[in-house]
Amino acid sequence: MNEQEQEQLDRLAEFDRHVGRADGFVVMLDYDGTLAPFSPDLRDVAPYAGVTECLDALLEAGGTRVVVVTGRFLREAPPVLGTRRSPEIWGSHGRERLLPDGDYAVTGIDAAALRALTVADAWSPMIEAAGGRSEAKPGSLAFHWRGADPGQVATIRRIVTEGFHRESLVGVLELHGFDGGLELRAPGRGKGDVVRTILAETPGDVPVAYLGDDFTDEDAFAALKGRGLGVLVRPEHRNTGADLWIRPPGELVGLLRRWADLRGAAA
Q: pTM of this prediction?
């Protein structure tokens, strides 16, 4: 074990002690790639074995707040969790907020961004002809290439990046990469904003964790830095601002189960 790995283990052990003795706990979790394996069809995604049971235990533990933070459009493809109780869910990278009681709110975008997304949506037939898929969401348009071959990926990337510059969308929309595609997004909301909102609603002595796998989760890790524990959940490590790296599904389920046990004992 190298020095960096030991530091991560020490940090996790300290965080676990805090989770076990604190009056509350907040855990935020990305869905696709973190709680569930990827699939080209969003409707064909389910959590890893054991995840639903861990989420149930956390939701039922005293003083524990579970928040799912996803890039999905909640009205079209809500994450499949299978839990007995509903957690709080933020969709479309923070533009949608669905509370456990069913209260729903969405943050709008300005007219210029809406026009720009309409322009970009005209590329959808070319994307589909190249083997990709377009997904319209509040404030963004995602172009997926998961399952496509390298040549198709290159074509989809070219269509989006060339169109982004040709149509002068720079400065009106943001171009973001994610694991399996590119997304054009109206500025002003991201997963980091979700973390900042949750932190503002949370007492400073309550432990907070964020688990994510994708480049879109890096804003969340940055927003949490110095205030909580960022956990990268991926089979392979990559450069990240997270404090800890674990592999799904075994290490993921083990971590969630341990936190559920600690919160159950603290209740």
A: 0.91
